[in-house]
Give the backbone structure.
Amino acid sequence: GLRVYRYPLNNLNTLYKEIVMSFPKDFFWGASTSSAQCEGGYDCDGKGMTIWDVKPLNPGCCSFHYASDFYHHYKEDIALMGEMGFKMFRLSISWARILPEGEGEINQAGLDFYKDVFRECHKYGIEPLVTIFHFDLPLALQQKYGSWNNRRMGEAYVNYCRILFENFRDDVKYWLTYNEQNMLIYYGAVDMVGGTMKLQDMNDLYNQAHNQLVAQAKAIHLCHELCPDAMIGPAPNITTAYPADSNPENYLAALNNDDLRNNFYLDALVFGRYPASMNNYFEKNGIHIEAQEGDFECMRTCHPDFIGFNCYGNDTVEYCDYYELDLSDFEGGDNRKMSYLQKLAEKPGVAKAVSNTKFPQGEDGHRFDPYCIRVTARRLTDRYHLPLIITENGYGRPDTLEDDGTVHDSYRIEHLRETIRQMSIGIDEGAMLIGYCPWSAIDLVSTREGITKRYGFVYVDRDEDDEKAKDAEMKRYRKDSFYWYKKVIASNGKELD
Ligand code: BG6
C-alpha cells in the first residue's frame, strides 16, 4: 500500500501516489546555486556587505566579489536552464541585498532584482526553490550581535523571512530555511568556510544550533500563515553513517553518529525534540542547552512540508572512545585538505571517520558512492514520512575549455548517471523523492577552492584572478553534461546513457 503523509497539507499527496515506479510525472529536475557563490555584484545597487565579502581566502583562490556574475547574466543563465528543460532552480537570496544592514531599511533594488529573476524562471516553466539563508550572513549583524548565541540574531532572521514572504508570495512556492545549518555546527570547531581556524566553545556551538532551530520553526509558522500555498523545508547536509564492519560497537557508533550529524536537526524540526542519545553527548561535552519556555512546542507544531537535503557521500565510521580532542595544532591549517575535515568529524565517545575501501579511489582521492543517496532517501522516508528534494549533490573538479568551446566532462556525467540510477531504484523501494537539484546549475565559486573546482552544467569563462574578473565577459559554454542532462530530463530519467 501507499504511505500517507503525516501532514496532509497540499498537492504533494497526489504527487506521491504517482511515485510507484521510478520518477513521477512532475518530478522536479533542476540544479542549484547560492547567492554569494554565483551572483557577484557584491557592491551593486545598494547591497550591504556580507561575511563572505570580507572573509580571508585560501591562497590562490578568487574572492566572491565577482563570482560568476549571475547578477548581470541571470537572463542568459535562466534561458540556458530553460533549454536544459529544468522544472526547478534552487537559488538563494542574499540577505544583505534585501536588508543592507541585516535588519531595518529595505533595499528596493534588491527586491526588484529577485522579482525579475523569478519572473525569468516562470517564463520557462521553472519553479524557483529559494534558500533564505545560504552562509552569507550580513556583516552588520555579525558586528552587532556576534553570533546566533544572541537571540537577536534569530529575531533578525525571522523578520527577514517576513519581508521575503510578504514580497514574494506570488513568485515563490518552495522555500528552504537554511543551507547546511548542521555542517556549521558539526564542523563548527573551526570556521569551515573562512579559511581560518577559530576554535569554538562546544556549549556555545550547540546553543547556537538550538537558537537557529527555534528561529527556523518560527519562520515555518510564519510562512504557513503568510503564504498558505507555499511549501517550506530545510536544506541540511544529510547522509548515512555506514559501520566500518560487523562489529556491533561500530554499528552503534554509526547510529550515534547519525543522531549527532543528522537526526539532531531533523528530529527537532519534525518531532520537536532531540534524539535521546544526544543527552549523553551533551553531558560528556559539558553542553547545557538553554532552552526557553515554548521553544520545543514551537518546533513540534511547525510542520515542514518537505525535507530538502544535500548529499555528496557517505560517512563510514568506527567507534572511538571518549578523549579530549585537541585541535590547537590545526591553527592556521589548510581547510582544503580532506584530512582536515576528517579530523573535525572525529567525535570522541561517538565515532571516528574511516576510509571506505568498498569504493575505489579516483585520481583526485575522491571515493564515489552512488548508493548513499538511495540509502539516505530510504532512511529519511522511514523516519519522517515527508516528501524529499535533493537540494545538492554532484562532483566538483577542474574542467578544460577546449579551443572549439566544448567541455568534455564525462566524469561528471558518470557520477550523476549512477546517482540517478540509484535514486530511481530508491523510489521504487518507497523513497519519497520528488526532486533532484544537483550542485551546480552553472559554474560558481567553491566554498574553499576558488573557481577552479567546478560543478556546473555550464562553463563560466573566468579564472582565479579577481582583477581580470572585474571586467571579464564571463562567456558561458555548454558542457557535455549540459546536453546529457537535457536528455535525462526530456525522458524523465529513463535515458541515462
Ligand atoms: C555544500 C554547500 O556544502 O557543498 C555549497 O552548500 C558548496 O555551498 C558545496 O559549494 C560544494 O562544496 P565546495 O567546498 O566544493 O564548494
